[in-house]
Write a structure and sequence with these properties.
The complex is a heterodimer of chains A (299) and B (270).
Chain A lengths: L4 E10 L2 E11 L4 E5 L6 H9 L6 E6 L16 E4 L11 H11 L5 H10 L13 H14 L4 E4 L8 H16 L4 E6 L2 H4 L5 E6 L2 E7 H6 L1 E7 L11 E7 L3 E7 L10 E4 L2 H10 L10 H5 L1
Parallel strand pairs in A: 3-7, 3-8, 5-6, 6-7
Antiparallel strand pairs in A: 1-2, 1-4, 8-9, 10-12, 10-13, 11-12
Chain B lengths: L1 H39 L2 H43 L1 H6 L5 H31 L6 H4 L7 H20 L2 H30 L2 E6 L12 E7 L3 E7 L1 H33 L2
Helix pairs in contact in B: 1-2, 1-4, 2-4, 2-6, 2-7, 4-6, 6-7, 6-8, 7-8
Classes of the chains: A alpha/beta (299), B mainly alpha (270).
């Protein structure tokens, strides 16, 4: 199977600092993947590697089955759309001139759809990019990326410069634009709540390493929160791995992976939200889902 | 890519074209006036020729500022503008390859600068020809082909600084300072070259100092003997030899700086 995006042991070092280390994950075509991690976790580096802006120092990344930096006559990055953080545009160029730039630089370019999209968003074509709002700027950058008719689209913190009220609408429009062609999307954010609604796949980065990667439904299905008395803080359950444990004066909470069997009395089991799951892992940087684990096999 | 480079440099191109046109017009009017006075040859005409020389010194002082200005305003922002704003990530993911981005940007700035500099230098050489006996020697840097060489060197210095630093303002300052360092070094090399080649000697009988040499030979010294005078001079063909050598040095430095620019840019994108 050709994955839309696949990383194997992917690493990137800048001089002595390690931005990414041993990252492995796969994204199937048609997925909408959330790349979650704190600032400095390596999200931008990962997306730049996938877009061919950087070269890995270890391991490999393949997009649509090929290396982003291969020297082929038909470079694969022509089929990858990318919107960098803060959606950089030329402040003195108008929106129409940006579309012209896209038309001139790309071999495949859908001018009609790009123009239509900008007009539908009520962004004046003759306005200079420097005078657009943050949200409009992101929309123009996204339109440029979509104009390539990409099969994979990578968005680095697209919501950061958008008004919180407009975020949901932006995501809805993004989904509308990408749903039809079965485009694979990966978008990064440091906030899981932003992306929860639209994503079906999660890659969680922590200090340059992939902590969790997989189908969100499977992940939620296979994790549980167990709450019991404080005295039973050392409870050992067969068949589950404790991801994170917190013992308070009155109760013990265990975030576990795997389905526990019958619980001792006074214990309660509940499902996790995606945010709770992410926070549990972020609290335990050394906890990670084994790469060749059952999740991988199931997905 | 060409369109984008043009679109981003419209203003600079207009300013450069205005400066070039203004410079050429000033030089030609100066040259025409000097030529007329030289043909006239009368005492009053020669006095007025002295006045024209003052005008040429002013113009020359302005021309000597051009390389640094070109380095600061054309060279330094060439890549630093994109790197500082992150727009290189836009164009490099919009289908432009690294090579195309670098080569097209450099070519569309350096080639016009070189051609403009050569044109200005040759017009200057033509114009000051009648102005002064050793006029072309006295303004070595502003006339002839070296004028183009200094311009591209300064621009290449700017692009290297911009590619290394990645922000416009610091790159401009570094360009200014670096040109201030490189410039005297090249002048030092030139003077070493003069010494290395050594002036020629010609001897005239008698002790009355009338130069036996054609107008455009550069007399650097004379020693008066009891019944003769030794003249030390550089002939005019040396002028063009020195021009060619200095231009070659400038172009070699330019090539090295462009190589550095490419290295710095590739390092950012590796």
């Amino acid at each position: 199977m050709t994955y839309a995006l696949e990383a194997v042991g992917l690493g990137k070092r800048y001089h002595r600092t390690r931005a990414l280390d041993g990252c492995s994950f796969r994204i199937e075509p048609g997925r909408v993947a959330a790349l979650i991690g704190a600032n400095g976790a390596g999200k931008s580096t990962l997306l730049h590697l996938a877009a061919g802006l950087l070269r890995p120092t270890e391991g490999t990344v393949t997009v649509l089955g090929r290396r982003p930096r291969d020297q082929a006559a038909d470079p694969v990055v022509a089929r990858v759309g990318f919107v960098a953080q803060d959606a950089p545009l030329y402040p003195h160029l108008t929106v129409a001139e940006h579309l012209r730039l896209g038309r001139r630089l790309n071999r495949r370019w859908d001018q009609a759809t790009a123009e239509h999209r900008v007009q539908e968003l009520a962004i004046p074509l003759d306005r200079r990019a420097g005078r657009l709002s943050g949200g409009q700027r992101t929309q123009v950058a996204l339109t440029l990326a979509l104009g390539k008719r990409p099969e994979l689209i990578l968005l680095d913190e697209p919501l950061a410069s958008i008004d919180p009220l407009a975020r949901r609408q932006f995501l809805r429009e993004l989904m509308q634009a990408t749903a039809a062609g079965g485009v694979t999307v990966m978008l990064s954010s440091h906030l899981v709540t932003d992306l929860e609604r639209v994503c079906d796949h999660l890659v969680l980065l922590n200090a340059g390493r992939v902590q969790v990667a997989g189908d969100i439904e499977d992940l939620l299905d296979s994790h549980r929160l167990l709450v019991g008395p404080a005295a039973a803080g050392g409870l050992v359950l067969p068949g589950v791995t404790v991801v994170h444990r917190s013992v308070h004066a009155r109760q013990t909470s265990l975030w576990v992976r795997g389905r526990p069997g019958p619980l001792p009395p006074a214990w309660q089991e509940s499902a996790l939200s995606l945010e709770e799951l992410v926070l549990a892992y972020l609290a335990e940087p050394r906890a990670a889902i084994p790469t060749a684990g059952p999740l991988e096999a199931a997905s | 890519m060409t369109w984008l480079v043009w679109r981003q440099h419209r203003l600079q191109a207009l300013c450069a074209a205005l400066v070039l046109a203004g410079g050429i017009a000033a030089l030609l009017s100066l040259g025409a006036a000097a030529h007329g006075l030289r043909l006239d040859g009368s005492a009053s005409a020669l006095t007025r020729l002295d006045g024209l020389r003052g005008r040429w010194f002013g113009l020359q002082a302005a021309m000597l500022q051009l390389p640094a200005l070109a380095g600061i305003f054309l060279g330094a922002p060439l890549f630093a503008r994109d790197l500082g704003r992150g727009t290189h990530r836009l164009i490099l993911t919009q289908g432009a390859t690294r090579r195309r981005w670098i080569v097209v940007s450099l070519a569309w700035v350096l080639v016009p600068v070189l051609l403009g500099g050569l044109l200005l230098g040759l017009v200057a050489a033509l114009s000051v020809w009648d102005l002064d006996e050793d006029g072309v020697w006295g303004s070595f840097e502003s006339v002839g082909v070296v004028a183009g060489g200094y311009l591209v060197l300064a621009v290449a210095l700017g692009t290297a600084a911009g590619a290394l630093i990645g922000r416009i303002l610091p790159a401009m300052v570094v360009t200014w300072v670096a040109y201030g360092v490189v410039h005297p070094v090249v002048i030092g090399l030139r003077q070493a070259g003069y010494l290395l080649f050594g002036p020629l000697r010609v001897t005239t009988p008698g002790t009355f100092p009338i130069s036996p040499l054609p107008a455009h030979d550069w007399i650097v010294g004379q020693t008066v003997g009891t019944d003769h005078i030794d003249w030390w001079y550089y002939p005019l063909d040396r002028f063009w030899t020195f021009q060619a050598v200095e231009t070659a040095i400038l172009l070699a430095l330019t090539a090295a700086l462009l190589g550095l620019t490419v290295v710095f840019l590739r390092r950012r994108l590796a």
